[in-house]
Design a protein that fits this description.
Elements lengths: L1 H17 L11 E5 L8 E7 L6 E6 L6 E2 L6 E4 L3 E10 L5 E10 L7 E6 L6 E7 L6 E6 L2 E2 L2 E3 L5 E4 L3 E10 L4 E10 L7 E5 L10 E7 L6 E5 L7 E2 L5 E4 L3 E10 L4 E10 L5 E10 L1 H5 L6 E3 L4 E3 L6 H4 L4 E5 L7 E4 L19 E3 L2 H4 L7 H6 L4 H5 L19 E6 L5 E10 L6 E9 L4
Antiparallel strand pairs: 1-2, 2-5, 3-4, 3-6, 6-7, 8-9, 9-13, 10-12, 10-14, 11-13, 14-15, 16-17, 17-20, 18-19, 18-21, 21-22, 23-31, 24-25, 24-26, 26-27, 28-29, 29-30, 30-31
């Protein structure tokens, strides 16, 4: 029995002595992902630990920030300089097993996509442009030129590109560093095709086109840089100005011509103008002259300037305007019971404020009471096409001629002579009752120049 037990123990010890502890191996491994797949600095990379059998970890990121980590997953590592960098992961465990994995990663230079545009000569069709890439760190280029010739190109300098169609054209540059492609766009503008065009505007005093007539030529040409104006019979007959002034002293029909150019295109356009004999008669129609309350309320003026052909109410009277007033209408009330025209320098008998540097105008309000030789009927007024009748009038101021008139007679003719000696007539066509804003409606015919 003792022998059997001794033999069992001997066998057991032998078996135990033959069993050895087997260590767990470490297999280091990891993966990474570049944020936004952007390998151009600054670069951010996320690392994923796939190691087996390890209990501790040591990361080394040469050129990265941070440069070391002992965490299983180190999070985001940032690279701010281009280059090729090693990444090493070492894993260990308590059994003393250890393993490492090293990889290399290429960090690219920063990519900034941009280019400069140079217009050769001008942007009139056909317009020629050059383009120069100014980006950094790229190694291939592809250009697209909307409606350009050529329409595509490669290389940093694509050469001269021609655009013939007016309007905006998009230029696209694609830049690749081998792994990534970047795109930017800019626009070039080709001016519209040349168009020669103009209109003319008479000077204020020449809007009746009676000689002498001075006109300003308003240039409305498109895409032009030089101009040649011509008009036989005008003064001057030729001009290179952008907007010249021509004067006509002889009645007739004239042809105005403009030749516009931009160095690539030339176009000529013409217009006719007719100027007439000088009648020395200025005709003004439908002039409103307010009663005194309308003038004071600044609704309808009572003061009129022949030079500006404009009616002025109280608040509009400045020092300059005051000295230009020729006609003053004083209407007492909306019933038009008492009305008269008053010389600008004789406003004391009205409720108007005195004017500064007022003119003196002679009036005949009532031809029927004038007891003078001056006479002009409504029919004569209407048929008047020149100043012959006016010039023959001997307009003198009399007590009867200054008498007031009421609103019972339409088509009343009031005669006057300005301080400059211009003779004229006022036809009162209507009395408009609008309460305190009442006014008379008149036509005026007056000499342009005193003879």
């Amino acid at each position: 029995m003792h022998i059997k037990r001794t033999l069992f123990l001997a066998i057991l010890y032998t078996l135990i002595g033959c069993v050895k502890e087997e260590a767990i191996p470490v297999i280091a491994d990891f993966e990474y992902e570049v944020v936004n797949e952007d390998f151009s600095v600054p670069v951010q990379i996320v690392f994923f630990n796939r190691t087996e059998g390890a209990e501790t970890y040591e990361w080394r990121f040469w050129g990265g920030s941070p440069s070391v980590s002992i965490h299983r997953n180190p999070g985001i590592i940032r690279y701010d300089k281009e280059g090729t960098y090693e990444i090493e992961l070492t894993g260990t465990n308590q059994d003393g097993s250890i393993d490492s994995k090293i990889i290399e990663i290429q960090i690219d230079a920063p990519v900034t996509v941009d280019f400069e545009i140079t217009n050769l000569i001008d942007n009139f069709s056909p317009a020629v442009y050059t383009f120069q890439e100014t980006a950094l760190g790229e190694n291939s280029y592809f250009w697209t030129f909307n409606k350009g010739v050529p329409s595509t190109a490669t290389g940093q300098d694509p050469g001269e590109i021609i655009f013939t169609e007016p309007g905006e054209h998009i230029v696209t540059l694609e830049v690749s560093n081998g792994r990534e492609t970047y795109t930017t766009q800019k626009t070039v503008t080709v001016a519209p095709h040349l168009k020669s065009d103009f209109f003319y505007q008479p000077n204020f005093d020449d809007d009746d086109y009676q000689v002498p007539v001075s006109i300003t030529l308003e240039n409305t040409s498109v895409s032009a840089t030089s101009y040649e104006w011509s008009c036989s019979g005008a003064t001057p007959s030729f001009s290179n100005e952008v907007q010249p002034e021509f004067t006509f002293t002889t009645p007739g029909n004239y042809t105005l011509s403009l030749t516009a150019s931009n160095g690539k295109e030339t176009e000529t356009t013409s217009q006719n103008i007719e100027v007439f004999e000088n009648t020395n008669l200025r005709i003004l129609t439908d002039v409103q002259l307010g009663i005194n309350t309308a003038h004071a309320a600044n609704t309808v003026g009572s003061f009129f300037s022949i030079a500006s052909r404009q009616t002025y109410y109280n608040s509009e009277i400045t020092t300059t305007i005051s000295a230009s007033i020729d006609l003053v209408f004083f209407g007492l009330n909306e019933n038009f019971t008492r009305n008269r025209f008053v010389s600008p320098n004789q406003l004391e008998s009205t409720n108007f404020s005195s004017l500064l540097q007022p003119k003196n105008t002679i009036f005949i309000n009532s031809q029927e009471l004038c007891n003078c030789s001056a006479s002009l009927t409504s029919d004569q007024f209407d048929m008047m096409t020149d100043d012959t009748l006016l010039d023959a009038l001997d307009i003198e101021e009399t007590e009867g001629g200054l008498e007031e008139f009421d609103g019972t007679q339409n088509n009343r003719i009031v005669l006057f002579e300005t301080q400059e000696g211009k003779k004229g007539a006022i036809k009162i066509k209507d009395f408009i009752n609008d309460g305190q804003n009442s006014y008379i409606l008149v036509d005026i015919k007056v000499q342009k120049e005193s003879l």
